[in-house]
Amino acid sequence: MKILVLGAGVAGLASAWYLARDGHDVTVVERHSGVALETSYANGGQLSYSYVAPLAGPGVLPKLPPWLLRRDSPLRFEPKLDWRQWRWCLEFVAACTQAQSDLTTRRMLALSFYSRGLMRETVDAERIDFRYARNGKLIIHAEQSSFDAARRLLDYQRSLGCEQEALDADQCVALEPALAQMRSRIVGGIHTPGEDAGDCYRFCTALEGRLRDEGRPVSFLLGTEITRLLHWRGRIIGIETSAGVLEADRYILALGTQSPALARPLGLELPVYPLKGYSLSLPVADDAAAPRISITDFKRKVVYARLGEELRVAGMADLAGFDTRIDPGRIATLLDQVRDSFPKASDFSRIKPWCGLRPATPWSTPLLGATPYRELLLNTGHGALGFTLAMGCGRIIADLVAGREPAVPLEGFMLRR
Ligand SMILES: Cc1cc2nc3c(=O)[nH]c(=O)nc-3n(C[C@H](O)[C@H](O)[C@H](O)COP(=O)(O)OP(=O)(O)OC[C@H]3O[C@@H](n4cnc5c(N)ncnc54)[C@H](O)[C@@H]3O)c2cc1C
Known about the structure:
Largest sheet: 9 strands, mixed
Radius of gyration: 21 Å
Strand content: 25-35%
Low-confidence stretches: none
Mean pLDDT: 95
CATH class of the largest domain: Alpha Beta
CATH topology of the largest domain: D-Amino Acid Oxidase, Chain A, domain 2
Number of strands: 20
Number of helices: 10
Number of domains: 2
Helix content: 25-40%
CATH superfamily of the largest domain: D-Amino Acid Oxidase, subunit A, domain 2
Bound molecules: flavin-adenine dinucleotide
Distance between the termini: 28 Å
């Protein structure tokens, strides 16, 4: 089959990867001159297979008012004259129930464990270099109440297949000696050995390289803006681009936060809205002072991943429209937090700041698969977990195109309206 993959972020590339393995004639269309130059560029680098609980949960609502009022809060809301932003918020609030959160977590774990298997299989078979490490993750808690709540969840998480253990502060430092510098802030931690980390941009360029070089029939149309999806009598008949009209048998919509804008003229309202986040990449100055294991600072909602000689720090979630400018205040907050937690990890003179828009649904679940148009499939809306879920979602797309039953049930991941 002739297939156009729309968007060369990690979602589009993983789709192209599995579609090419099925022998299809695949072309990836991307507006930038290279792959993964938007949200897949400098994300947190965590392959967070066991931490997939949705952002919308029963514990979030009481925290919202103080978060929204504080300048250095991990979550920020800038109201816009955009009813889609407000509808997203209402759906988010409606999803903040225990029942919905548990259901979503169970569904997401099935998808993330499937993705872990495929990612590890690919890493082992292809030997691609993207600063990948199977180093596990430690969530550190600075408050007794949050640590107690996390410990209470351990049995439930175990029943869902997550291997985790609770550690006291000294055990946390023994596991990750770089934490010694912030020992006084730690009450305890939850260790998950089965988590990985890697550089998403390098992963994407490595996939692109393999897809181009190994004789698999994948072409890349870079620097090509998609302006419209063309439809006629309930069918997608092509896409209008800056390089002319392109036609195919199937179209995979993987345009990240731009997916809704391109789907809207087809009568499809995708519940995806940007959640802006920030990252810093810092060259490691003192190897022993920078964590090797991935760390999440639960209170500050900041994640740390060691990517070779670099420390990647990421956090913040700003519901503030499509603005992609870097807010220096947000970077300063993040930098203060790194200096406070790992003061000797870097000399802080060569930081690379970045921001990106997470394509988020109110439920934190991606949108996968069928649309009312037989030719159009969705692979978008992965929110904070696009790198983690990429391989599973890519494989599911290939299964659907081939008419195979996906290994993970799609209930909860399909377009609801
Ligand atoms: C601060 C931050 C930290 C994060 N940390 C993690 C993490 O630790 N682990 C994790 O799993 N995930 C993380 N994420 C989430 C992850 O980065 C995203 O879910 C993922 O990158 C989304 O991939 P995508 O391919 O859907 O979107 P994108 O990477 O944005 O790709 C979409 C592509 O479509 C192209 N495009 C859009 N419109 C058009 C058009 N009209 N014509 C042509 N091309 C177009 C864009 O140029 C882009 O290349 C983080 C995100 C942020 C912002």
